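U., I forgot to send this yesterday:
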Amino acid sequence: MSLSVVQVDYKLSRSLIREVMDRSGQNLLACYQCRRCAAGCPVGDETGVTPDRLIRTIIFGDREKALSNLLVWKCVACYTCGSRCPNNIQTARINEALKEMGKEDHVEPLLPAVAAFHDNFMRSASHFGRINEIEFMGLYELQNTKREIKKGGGWKVVAGALKSSARLAVSMMKKKRLHFRLNRIRNLSEIKRLFRKAGNGPGG
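Result:
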């Protein structure tokens, strides 16, 4: 049996660990690879990466691999990993931190539609303090349309996506899950201030 040697740059490793821990609020060093999170992760088999392996990647200091893997983009934030973890490590929060880090590093998202959903969800929330489905879906589809045209997907691809979204909109209206009123919360200025502080909203 042959053994492979893992090369670790401890300076880079410490820097990456600290950044992810500071951003996510999770103590990665408490992970001792028991793999209880892996046994319960609903997308681990599909992504080829389980929460324990993601944490190990960060601890090894492999920034590129940590920012570019399917678990970051396909995590459904079910928090099964944290509920099973003996040290309460929530990988969903780690994934959110990695998304933001990837965006700042201009790393191309592996699933652009997921990135567009995230961006426009936050943008709509910053406008009204809550999500308005009409605005959110409009912003989301506009961003997807621009991306498809830019990469040469053609109008047929765009038209197909818009048609699918229109059917979804009709279904949502029938179930009274699509609201036309633009309701704002009280103290909206406080929400905008929080978004600016986090760097996710107007002026951020």
